[in-house]
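Issue 218. Parser rejects a valid record. Input:
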Amino acid sequence: MFDANVPVHGVVSIGGIDLWITNTIIMGWIISAVLILFAVVVRIKLKGFTDRPKGFQNVVEMLVDMFNNFMKSNGNPAIMWMGGWFFSLFAFLLISNIVGILPLQRPPTADWPLPFALALTSFFFIAFSGIRYNGFKYIKRTYLSPHWVFLPVNILGEFSRPISLSFRLFGNILGGLILVAMLYQLTPVIADVARPAAFFIPIPLHLIFDLAFGALQAFIFTILSLTFIGLAAAES
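Output the parser choked on:
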């Protein structure tokens, strides 16, 4: 789904297929680079961690404890080893969703391909976890129940998960972006009536749609992925 309103910074042709380098891709690279840099810094700092944490160590340990508790209370204990993936997913989505608060920046999750790619990754983890912990029983339970003739319907049903997951995130972020953009279009009209109020109106809306809703949608996407994967890993 290519949005003509998204700036294109170049086109790379691979095997006769044109790949559009858009703001979404560039922002995704930047956010990934920031998270990788943070991980490298933490890895280097680990050598200096002590039994009495302070400063940066306190922040890291607080984040790890919070996410471990989140995994324990909401996920299947069998998939605790995937905590790093879920933490990375949540951090990436959180930054991607709230980056719209910066001037002239469009959240990369406001373009459907990125949420769909992340949802598709969760879909593969669902299948991987189900087969790893239940083997053929998972395939039978998911795709051949109640009878093998329902295989096409069951495949469509399973594939609808990443589609609905991606559209939920995409729709909410894009909707907030549109509402804020509409408000900015109306600001000159509002300014004619109440100029001081027009200056401050966008601030709470950015706090609601970019920060609050952005954090909420990152949480919902992560916990739904965690739930689906945990259910797949559960014993039949």
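Fixed in the parser; the record now loads. Residues 8-233 form one domain.
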